[in-house]
Structures are given as structure tokens and as C-alpha cells.
Write a structure and sequence with these properties.
Layout: H1 2-14, H2 18-30, H3 35-45, H4 50-85, H5 99-119, H6 126-135, H7 140-169
Helix pairs in contact: 2-3, 2-4, 3-4, 3-7, 4-6, 4-7, 5-6, 5-7, 6-7
């Protein structure tokens, strides 16, 4: 299914004019699990110069991820403010945390925000891991910083890999 999505994106983008291909990488980079790394790889492997493909895919991923982090931060603020207003801070909720939340919490304890941000794209989309870090109480500035670094680094690495891949098969 995921390979079909990549194949469809490849077909869609390859049929566009060069300037449209670059613009198409912005929303492609915003798609969870495509993100900056596969978006920049897709663009570079289509023959779009990496100096154009990488920033386009990175921009889409940064916008989507930072928006998700901002929204989750506001939601966390609303929940914690509500708890403070109630006496004793009781939530009335004894539910067991989800498997995803437990996984992110364990990774946060083990690797910290930098580790989760840099390794996270291989486990879960940055649009999910960034907000999860904020929801678990990680400092927002640190999450923004490290998610941004991760998105840029992986975008550059896979964009270069896409160019090398294209050169190898050409």
C-alpha cells in the first residue's frame, strides 16, 4: 500500500512541468511517512536538482510538523490549565496510556528529545512524534529545534541519496 502511494506520487509529479514538480514536493513533504526524506528522494530521483527538491520537501514537512506541535501544545495547555482549576488536579481518568504513547514515553526517557527527533522518522512520522513529545511534557522549544534539525538533516541525506540513485541508474 505504501509503495503504491509512492508510485502514484512519482507518476503524478513526473507528469508535471519542472516548476510544478518543485511545488508538488511541498505538499508531498507534508504527508506523514513521506515527509522530507522521501519527498526529497522522490524529487531528486525524478531529476529535480537537489537544491530545489530538498528545500521544497523540507518546507512541507516543517510546516505540517510545526503546525501539529503548536496545536498539541495548545491542547496540552488547555488540559493542564483545566486540571489546575479543579481541586486536587484529579482528572477522573484512570485509563491506561495507549501503546503509541507508552512507546514514545519510553523512547523519550531513553534517548531524550534529540534522540526521538532524529530517530523518530524511521518509527513514526514526525507529525506524530513531535506532538507526542509535547503532550508528554517535553519543552516545546527543544521539540521545535530538534524536530527541525531532524527534518532538515534527513531531507538533505535522502535528497543526496536520490541524486546518487538517479546517477547510478542513468
Amino acid at each position: 500500500m505504501f509503495q503504491d502511494l509512492l508510485a502514484q506520487l512519482h507518476t503524478l509529479v513526473s507528469g508535471l512541468e519542472p516548476w510544478q514538480q518543485v511545488l508538488a514536493l511541498v505538499p508531498a513533504g507534508a504527508i506523514p511517512f513521506i515527509e522530507s526524506y522521501l519527498g526529497s528522494f522522490l524529487g531528486s530521483s525524478l531529476g529535480i536538482h537537489p537544491a530545489l527538491a530538498i528545500p521544497a520537501a523540507v518546507a512541507g514537512n516543517l510546516i505540517a510538523t510545526f503546525l501539529a506541535i503548536a496545536l498539541s501544545g495548545r491542547a496540552r495547555d488547555a488540559v493542564t490549565d483545566g486540571r489546575r482549576r479543579r481541586k486536587g488536579g484529579a482528572t477522573g481518568r484512570d485509563a491506561k496510556p495507549s501503546r503509541f504513547r507508552a512507546k514514545v514515553a519510553t523512547a523519550l526517557d531513553k534517548y531524550g528529545v534529540p534522540g526521538v527527533a532524529l530517530l523518530g522518522p524511521f518509527v513514526v512520522a514526525s507529525q506524530l512524534s513531535g506532538p507526542a513529545l509535547v503532550a508528554l511534557g517535553a519543552a516545546r522549544r527543544k521539540v521545535y529545534l530538534w524536530m527541525g534539525i531532524s527534518i532538515v538533516v534527513w531531507g538533505i541525506a535522502f535528497g543526496i541519496f536520490g541524486s546518487l540513485f538517479l546517477a547510478a541508474i542513468a
